[in-house]
Write a structure and sequence with these properties.
Rossmann fold, 10-stranded mixed β-sheet, Beta-Lactamase, 7-stranded antiparallel β-sheet, 19 helices, 5 domains
Amino acid sequence: MNVVPDTSVVIDGRVSDRVEDGTFAGATISIPEAVVAELEAQANDGIESGWDGLSELQRLAELADDGEVTLEYVGDRPDAIERGHASEGEVDALIRDLADDMGATFVTSDIVQSEVAEAKGLDVEYISPRVEDVGTLSIEEYFDELTMSVHLKTGVVPMAKRGEIGEMHYEEIREDVLSESTMKEYADEIENSAKESPEGFIELSEPGMTIVQFRDYRIAIARPPFSDGIEITAVRPIVQTDLDDYEYDQELRDRLLEQQRGVLISGSPGAGKSTFAQAVARFLADSDYSVKTMEKPRDLQVGPEITQYTELDGQMSLTADSLLMVRPDYTIYDEVRKTDDFEVFADMRLAGVGMIGVVHATRAIDALQRLVGRVELGMIPQVVDTVVYIEDGEVHTVYDVTTEVKVPHGLMEEDLARPVIVIRDFETGKPAYEIYTFNRQVVTVPIGEDEDGESSGVDRIARQEIEREIRSIAQGHVDVDLKSPNTAVVYVEDRDISSVIGKGGGRITDVENRLGIDIDVRTHDEKPNSSAGSGGAGGTSPAAADRTGQIVKPEITSRHIVVPVDGEAGETVEVEADGEYLFTATVGRGGEVQVSRGSAIAEELELAIDRKQQITVTPS
């Protein structure tokens, strides 16, 4: 008897099983070089199935040495093009053709391979993949009723997060350091159990990282060189809650049921966001709504009536396209992190699907701000109308998000009316924040004064904008004293007075009209408590004279000029070209300043770049 096995049955270890039970006793086992190439490639990439297959080849070699079978390697290794098209069946075709040419029995655990081979007239033996009733995993011994997650690593004592929601502690749970052999046994057991049991599956398998969902456990296995040692992190839910376990439960029920909503559930890692999301999902499903989830990895604990989807062909956008055909009433999106995620979330919401997204954020307002720049500002309330912030397992804050056309809080002139996103406290109905465009920039302004008595957010923004405008005219030092929401005094060098005011007051009037603020221009000598000659005859302060700017290379995109800044987010900086002041800006979270193309500032900066001038950034 001559047998040609394919990769699937070698990985599964079923060829040596057939030899040992006598089915293939005395047979000639012809291993295609294409199989060896596939196993070698998988093992080199750190994929466990490659090692499983190589172990099977070693067992077959031992059986051949004992005279049980004859083992030979046949055929040619696939070339680079054939390996590149392995997922399209090129390597499978090579193995089938080899079995056909040899007149051998083709053995496989791949049902597709089996059907194709039979259709081509081959003698096929299909061996079903091994499925076993998997019992308890060894790592489950580290869990008790208060353990949320277990953290194991080679050379380290076992650690765990234990306690009630909101009072978790990361602590040692054993005294003995874990050896590499023990960690490898744990990892192999987890992966094999996920493959063999209908209660588990491998969510992700990449070189160095495997993510497994097994029963209630989500388990991440990291291996070198991705990590500096074998590490296993196993997480499970320790509580299941209902919506009536939370504050505002009846109000939230009514809000979710009255119409499809756009909701962001936010909070810090471990705060209980997913637990709350699961409670919402169960409530909606029990209220006769069609509910689906989008997750990567899939680890929400929901009932079988809620279908859990992951990435389709590696893209959540394709998953969304499929779900739009299914038309669920609500979709739970866990977790919304990257720009693509927010875009998919927005597209589905605008298509009429109720969306509930789980977002990492340290404040409730931060969750909404993550949409800024990713979704058109005016569309945000149509995408997200409710923000729920979870802290220590409890509903801490709920915001209602709407749009109004009004004069922003703190501004006075009626002609400054514009679309404003108003974020209100759900319980009191009082405005907490406003988001709007101010002088070409999107700003988020807290309503009212800060607790420490400092000026409100709109005052700080107004001061920055006034300073930005005046610095674009003046050559020397500029100070701004905001007297009220609609009046300010600007102090400049003597030599800059005429330039700032302009002929007949025309230039300062233009600035006032743009900002909606009355500006009184004075010299530094007129500033209260200032010493004569402040700023020096040269037009710059001593501090400014000592500053050293960092040389940067701006990048011009279709919509912005991006200036990279090596500094802290929120820091105010001055941008210069060959030593000439251009404008003042605030460093964004990404460590950069973005200037919208088409603005006067952008035109000056772009002209300086075209002239090959040296662009520098200096702390203001």
